[in-house]
Amino acid sequence: MKTALAAALLACSLFTATVHGAPAPAGRPAVTQELVAAGELRLQSQRLAKLWLQAGLGINAGAASRQLADGVVRFERSLAALGHLARNEHTQKPLQRIGELWTEYRSVLLLPYGSDGLAAVNRLADELMLASGRLSLRVEAQADGGGGRLLDLSLRQNMLAQRLARLYLLAQAGDRSRGRLVDIEQARKEFATALDELAAARENTPASREALALARGQWLFFERALAEIGKPGSRADHVATTSERIREVLDEVSRQYAADLDTPQLATAAVAPRRN
């Protein structure tokens, strides 16, 4: 794992060098791109910790190491794509905080699996999740009429799925404290509630409804695997593989919302209470 990740860090060092001066990406409207990039940071904060745990526990370790290296590159790309926000007084501080946390996070991801590395990886995963969530809130606030709400909510769903898998693997590693089980149940309920909210949104198009139907199907498999925690014969590899499949399906949901963001339906979407 260390060799693959070290190579990925070296390969993406150019992104880090230019992160604070990178121009806004071309093509898609800027706020949409910013929401997608900030959502990717939030997603990878949890996914990288999940994959580090997965490799350390020997659960499809080869695939987990490759995915971990890929996730590092994805994080760096998204951070670089948001570099222009360092010039915005509303987003400068959360972006700076993300950069500071990332410098530390990518270093501890190179640590071998063990108690010290476990504590550091999980602490930084949570801090980075919160920091990227704050950035997403500030970016979404700039979307005209609150039209970025459904896109950001779908992106947050992807983070929650990865967080659930990460918490499950922590339990598999031996942490089945009441607090950990409460965290898992809370994240599960949040995911289910938000998935219902997305499905019921009147702004949905036929394409987004179809993508959400696929996501709901994958959620049934994922939730079933999560329910096996602590039971004899429970399969952590099912959670690992299903969490990656649901990530791919939720990526498609977000792509549909991003594509629809400039339509009149989404442009007039009501602003609902938000969570990081």
Automatic annotation (TrEMBL):
Main location: membrane
A Pfam family assignment: PilJ
Compartmental location: Membrane
Signal peptide as annotated in the record: 1-21
Keyword tags: Membrane, Signal, Transmembrane, Transmembrane helix
InterPro entries: NarX-like_N
Protein name as catalogued: Type IV pili methyl-accepting chemotaxis transducer N-terminal domain-containing protein
Species this chain originates from: Azospira restricta
